Amino acid sequence: MNLDVIALLMSAATLVIGVLGVREYAEGAFQRRKLAQRSALAEVERRANSPMSRFDSALRRTDIGRKIERRMISAGVRVQLSVFVIAMAVAGLLAIVFVWRALAPVFGIVAAVGVVVGFFAYLKRQEERRKEIFTAQLPELARVLSNATQAGLALPTAIDMAADELDDPAGAELRIAARSMQIGQPFEEAIADLRDRMPSREIGVLISTLLVASRSGGALVSALRSISQTLESRKETRREVKTILGETTATSWALLTMGIGSLFMLNLLQPGAVLTMTQSTPGLIVLGLGLSLFVIGFLAVRRMTKIDF
After folding, report:
1. Which of 77, 116, 178, 200 is 20 to 30 A distant from 94 in Cα terms?
2. What does the domain layout of the chain look like in residue ranges?
3. DSSP of 130-171, one letter per residue?
4. What's the pLDDT tens digit per position in 31-61?
5. 10 Å Cβ neighbour count for 12?
């Protein structure tokens, strides 16, 4: 009898879920039809009036908001500014709550600062990675520009053609430069903006060559071919150096992880030990000194393995 009741209840629950699912599907289809009937202007206006869009606008009116947005664009992070800021704030609050309860209140504040630093470190890492990919594409870019100019095309036209042939990020950056020139920006300014968005020695050499050729002419084809060979050699050198230093870079991160993990291990072996240490001046000095040594070691290893080409 009990099994019959359970089966009946499960059947009723399944029926209710099915009805709710059909209702949600019908409502979604109705909403899609309504959206399709709206004009493009009405849809843009609706999105612009949403709370997230208004928050985006408010952030862009601040200096720090504009700086964060520029860094996101340089890093190729394709999320809204408001989403990035809210995600950073939520992650900081979660870090405060977790570390506050797991270790001590003072480390909750330190964890929140660490989350903010981590978000900006992620942006910096994405900027560096995007710049590295762009630098690796420079030999191919130089060959495309050389072939285009040899065929008699002007430099702005050659850049527009290269934007269509190359993958991102080179294609996206060249497309921005090409669109800027199409709306009236001078060639020199558009190329200078490209160098500002992707600063590196290789890009500087290539762009300087293009600027000199656009102003005074010269053997642009042979110069681009020579630059292409040089950039190819530099790309191989960078790859070898990065492979050699890979183990040392991993060691630096392991060193920082050990410093943070030691606090949780200490608190796991002796519950409440970290909290007790933070309640006395000698304990705070010992904790601060220990963590400082780990951080200094991490920064020292990172600095010694940083090579500028």
Report:
1. 77
2. 2-57, 129-243, 245-309
3. HHHHHHHHHHHHHHHHHHHHHTT--HHHHHHHHHHHSPTTHH
4. 666 655 555 445 445 555 667 778 888 888 8
5. 10
Instruction: Kindly state the DSSP code that residue 167 receives in the 8-state scheme.
Output: P
**Which whole number is the average pLDDT over 198-205?**
78
Separation of alpha carbons 122 and 112, rounded Å:
15
Phi and psi based region of residue 184 (left: phi greater than 0; alpha: psi -120 to 50; beta: remaining): left
Q: What is the mean pLDDT of residues 260-276?
A: 83
| b/e 187-217 (16+ beta carbons within 10 angstroms → b) | beebbeebeebbebebbebbbebbbebbeee
Question: Given CA atoms 201, 206, 211, 212 in this order, what sign does their dihedral have?
Answer: positive
Q: Is the pTM of this model over 0.85?
A: no
* Each residue's pLDDT tens digit, 48-102: 566 777 888 888 888 888 888 888 888 888 888 888 888 888 888 888 888 888 8
Distance CA 156, CA 125 (A): 31
Question: Considering the domain 129-243 in this protein, what is its CATH number?
Answer: 1.20.81.30
Contact 110, 233 (CB under 8 A): no
No. of H helices and E strands in the chain?
A: 14, 0
CA pair distance 159, 141, nearest whole angstrom: 9
